[in-house]
């Protein structure tokens, strides 16, 4: 479990950096570009994502699982890598061509922006991060991510000065990702060999990738369609409100869902070896852990929303506080569906049931958007998102009712909710007394964290005790080591 903890730490950093560094720029960018500029970026990015779905074809998930299966045999790993990568390049080339044709002949508004967004498709074509996920080498991904994200932030503050610099902002955002993908190729020679592959080797990966293609479509539908439909049925300003609130929610989710990237290859490898007891142990442990994090994150998000958005996004984005409150339940829903779907169904080959669950969410989200967006705009899109995510999680719980007994977690869940609700009281009161300011959010988060942890100590939470005993033991060992050196 130590390597899992280390990889989880790396992946937490990776996931947070993927969101938090652009998130650091939000106060600046939101004031320079405004809700209109942010909305245009989100809307045009949502269009390119539909072509990206075809370009990726479920390869990322499938490739990580396949690499995890074959990582102990370098020759088999090499053959799998080159054949999957070739398939990925062919599909992305087709997707890129179709996107350029679409942009030239069918796009009237924001044509230049749409052309720049095409760089996202090129990034997907050369993306081999799935190889490093499959072999559980997260450190290299972190180093890459840190460098290019920081470089991107510097460029944003240097070059983005007026609303007319929107195209520069998108170039910086997309180019930093593209360059980051290129860098990962420098490590390749030490992982795989150059081997000959046949047409049959390439096409052998097509069918299993297609099995994950439908759920990928469904996932993208209820992640992206809200922004597209808002742009069509409402205004780009409403897209900007939704995008900003959604980005804040993703910060909370990053540290929680990061465990998925670590556990998918580990569970895949254990399942391939027939270690079913180990798979079951992993799932219950991870479900307990994500609940430990997700419940206070959801309640804390509600408690800090009004004061936080006031100083962080600016007065133009006041509506985002309401959106944050509405969207907050998806933190728990996605945390659970990530464990049951991505970490259990996918590694154990239950793709069809996973597909059904995400299709249910996508269809529901699409239908609710048609009803709610016209009347409630971004608030309607937020309501549709929450109901869709709950539907996905509920469907997966139904399919896994004989495999995962949620009743085993009831005692722990009760402790997390009780502690979270107690925490919510001082967090909300602090916000009411101090008002919107950075120090308010800092005090709210610090107080909330301390109250939550202390309550769990009083309620004798096993995972809380385990985590802090580990931290204490490591600090104590370092203290003894330094004392011995002196």
From TrEMBL:
Keywords: Cell membrane, Membrane, Transmembrane, Transmembrane helix. InterPro entries: Poly_Biosynth_Transport, Polysacc_synth. It comes from the Bacteria. It is a multi-pass membrane protein. The chain crosses the membrane at residues 12-30, 42-63, 84-106, 112-134, 141-160, 166-188, 279-302, 322-342, 354-373, 379-401, 413-436. Pfam families: Polysacc_synt (PF01943). It is found in: Cell membrane. PANTHER family: O-ANTIGEN TRANSPORTER-RELATED, PST FAMILY PREDICTED COLANIC ACID TRANSPORTER. This is O-antigen/teichoic acid export membrane protein. The lineage of its organism: Bacteria, Bacillati, Bacillota, Clostridia, Eubacteriales.
